[in-house]
Amino acid sequence: MDVAASEFLKDGKYDLNFKNQPNDGAHAISAQSLGDLYKEFVKEFPIVSIEDPFDQDDWSSWTSLQSSVDIQIVGDDLLVTNPKKIAEAIQKKACTVTESIRAALDSKAAGWGVMVSHRSGETEDNFIADLSVGLASGQIKTGAPCRSERLAKYNQLLRIEEELGNVRYAGEAFRSP
Predict the structure, then answer these.
(1) Model pTM?
(2) Which of 138, 143, 149, 152 is deepest in the core (most CB within 10 A)?
């Protein structure tokens, strides 16, 4: 579930009606209420992963949710492969490949899973498929297989599997791919 909550934070509240105009703010809720809503969803539905459940600067809500559910919480907007942000997150957009590898190793050392992710404005270059396999991340986020730049990544993963043999889908084993 990719929430992208930074997109609907307004005046310290999460506006669940942010796409509808006019909007009187009647559906704006606190971070605590949003966290409670996620917990209800996790109990009710087979959710194994929530991406960007809170604003990228709402550290306390991130840590509260992470400690209260036994699912993967992905910090795409929170961390965006920034080693300094990852170091900060362990204690309380752009980078080089070397920094990405360092960020992945630091994350794994902290007991986190790693998901290699595309960014908007992608090209048909399929390097992130190789990076995902090379890091043994077990997960890649490259969007629905509906456009050539996305298919290029999935096709590269298939070529890698043909060469290396059967691979295991992370699924519920996402914490230890």
Answers:
(1) 0.56
(2) 138
For 83-140, the pLDDT digits (tens) are 676 666 666 544 578 878 888 898 889 888 788 887 666 778 889 999 999 998 888 8
Q: Whole-angstrom Cα distance, residue 40 to residue 68?
A: 12
Both tokens of residue 132?
């995902």
Look-up of token digits 């043999």: 165
Q: At what angle do helices 31-44 and 59-68 cross, to 10 degrees?
A: 30
d(C-alpha 115, C-alpha 175), whole Å: 11
Q: Which long-range contacts (CB under 8 A, 24 or more apart) does 33-38 make?
A: 34/5, 34/61, 35/61, 35/64, 35/65, 35/68, 38/65, 38/69
- Residue 15: what are its φ and ψ, rounded to 5°? -90, 105
Tokens of 121: 């404005």
Distances (CA, A) of 86 to 1, 4, 35, 78: 21, 18, 22, 9
> Tokens standing for 110?
């902290």
Structure tokens at 80: 């965006």
Side chain identity at residue 19, one-letter code: K
